[in-house]
Amino acid sequence: MDYNPLKMPCDWNVARKHALARRTAPDTKVHHDDDDDEEPRKPETCPCCGFEIERKEIPYCDDIKSLKFLGAGFPLFYNFLKFCILLLCLQSLVAIFNVLSNYHGEFCQQQTLNPISQQMEPNCQESIFLQLSIANKLNNSEVVVFIQKANLIMLIIMIILLQLFRRHQKKLDNQIDESQLTPSDYTIMVTNIPKTLNVNYRWELTNLFQNYAVSDNNFQITVTKVVLVYNITEILAEEAKIQTTLQKKKISLQTSNMNYDSQDVRDCEIEIETSQKRIKDLQDEYFWTNRQFSGIALVSFESEKMKDLILSQNTHTLFDKVKTFLYSGKTPGLDEMELQWQSQKLFLEQAPEPNDILWENLATLTQDKIIARIKGFFITLVFQGITYLIIYYLSIRCIRLVQNEELEKRRIGVDDKEKIKKIQIISFTIASTIVLVNKLLIEPLMKWITKVEKISTNTKFQISYANKLIIALFVNAAIVSYVIDILIFSNVYGFGGFMYNETLIFIMNAAIAPLIWLIDPMSLFRKLQRDHSVSKGNDSLLTQREANEIMEQIDYQLAMRYADIIKTMWLTFFFGTAIPLGVFSSLIGLSLFYLIDKYNLLRRRTVKENISQQLSWQMINMLEFVVLFNPLGNTAVSMFLNQKFDIYSAIGVIIGLSFQFLPIHRCVDAMFPVKNFEDPVSYKKAQIEFDTDYDRENPVTKEKAIAEYSLQLQGITQEKKVEYQIMHEDHY
């Protein structure tokens, strides 16, 4: 079937089939194994993406390992989320005693002289939030010390659990890797290849790796595929030109009452055909002449053992890469045994999955990436400062209102309940602003900044995005409130103070994220768009590609979920002792998050990237900061509440810092290694099970490779049909 992504009017049946192919469900593998008795059927694939259309829906209650077809990243994510819930359950044991002792405290009911109104008033405003906070037992130092001792014990338990969890995640990753064969199992990425040679790079690389990549001459290396990476700037420019012309075509269709024969529409179609032909010519030119070759190649081998052996015998250091960068690709002081090409050391590394690669960024020059990331860093600082000023302004308004109300009460007398009501409204506004700014402004902003950085894989993109987002969300939710309410105004438990506002942030943080994911406004909006477009039939102005996209579910953003979870964990362990109600809020919030998010993934999302396990390892590193933040938060709050040094929190800070700087998890890994018992399967046998491959994702070779893959599936199916017929003829 010839597929034209720019076809107008679009074929909605093709779009529906594409949506079925992109569901979050494994394909049914209707091309059966060799020993199956059932007659094989031809698997129908989507001409747009090459994915099989027939898929088997995963039951909601299935084990998280059933998500392995999406790559290791998703099972590891849900296991990570369950572990975070476990940590909160353990912290709740301390929080239960903390809440009960706070409830029976008496500090908030005690009265002191208000310096503004010059009247005797309770220490805290009348609120259940403050009654259940540590402020209500400031006059009971023995209980406070007991809580700090319990926190120190819990800190040691957390460190042990984090090490066990790392090991469990690695075991899970190994189990998934053993059961799920993917192209990256057989493939390495080669960089720093000389770019301007007039040679057949595929043949040269095949020869190089088969004859010179390993020291053992008796071990035969077999290269099965070489995919070159190109600078596709010219192709992207033509595609941008097509989009501009498409908009002109749509305007012409609207003004001509959907007359495809009008002169303006025909002129636009000629322009589009010219650009499409130009793209096709560029693809052929790049493929056959190596023009715009980026010096990067993806080389696949016949077995995983071959790949691992080559990687182990051809290592490099960061210093090697720096030297090469400074000498414009040349590597001075090369050993003759090192794999090289024209005095350029070839850098080998494990290849990412095909659909993990951001092909438009992979060929970006190192110096351009450095400049882009410096730019992204400063943009992040500027916008973080702007959000701080917004929250600061609202807090100033709250404090001034409190002072004005006190002066007004002193002059003519004002009802206390009316004053408290106004303060509560402003406190709610501050908490709502922080949570909504985080959700609606910070998340898309950090994603845009990360795009500026020209990162080469989705996994690295998600790591960078998640790291920025975690820090920004935590700073807004915790640090900004602490600085404004405590350091600037010294308002810890007074009217509209830190304890009250931060408790509201805890509650809203726990409620808003699950509520948003439950309502899922983006899916509702997509459905309205879809229904509206489909109702127009042939009068729709969508191209086939746009129709395919609108029929899909919305994309799943894994980094955003990780950031929400880790921000919640940091916030909870930072202020959980002072505000134990926050521990229970976070526990309920993350539990609801797990239930709703898993449903959304299985029924209301499309997953287009294969995120590697590297994202999970990085997020575990970020999670481990709770070991430091817990005693650090206790110290920061107690210094202002008790006006004295807390020895147990100080010990906790020392333990937390030691945990961050000492290579504890590396020592544990060395002492208790996780072994891989994967059975060897050849590339030739495994490739038919691949959902995608490097040539099917590469923008230069994609169309041709998808067509060849479809024919390959048909050929295999026909071969199996013949085997099936022979088997049954022998039987009868």
Number of helices: 25
Indicate the low-confidence ranges by residue numbers. Answer: 30-36, 410-414, 724-732
Which of globular, elongated, flat, extended, rod-shaped describes the shape? globular
Main sheet summary: 4 strands, antiparallel
Spatial strand arrangement across the major sheet: 4-5-3-8
How far do the termini sit from each other? 38 Å
SS-based class:
mainly alpha
Q: Approximately what portion of the residues adopt beta-strand conformation? A: 5-15%
Would you count the extended β strands for me?
A: 10
Domain CSC1/OSCA1-like cytosolic: 185-361
Biased composition (Basic and acidic residues): 24-43
Protein name: CSC1/OSCA1-like cytosolic domain-containing protein
GO cellular component, one term: plasma membrane
Write the layout of secondary structure elements.
Blueprint: H1 12-21, H2 73-103, E1 111-113, E2 120-122, H3 128-131, H4 141-179, E3 187-191, H5 201-212, E4 223-230, H6 233-255, H7 263-289, E5 293-301, H8 304-313, H9 318-326, E6 340-341, E7 344-345, E8 347-350, H10 359-362, H11 366-412, H12 416-452, H13 458-488, H14 498-519, H15 521-535, H16 544-551, E9 554-555, H17 558-575, H18 581-604, E10 605-606, H19 614-623, H20 626-641, H21 647-661, H22 664-671, H23 683-686, H24 694-697, H25 702-731
Parallel strand pairs: 9-10
Antiparallel strand pairs: 1-2, 3-5, 3-8, 4-5, 6-7
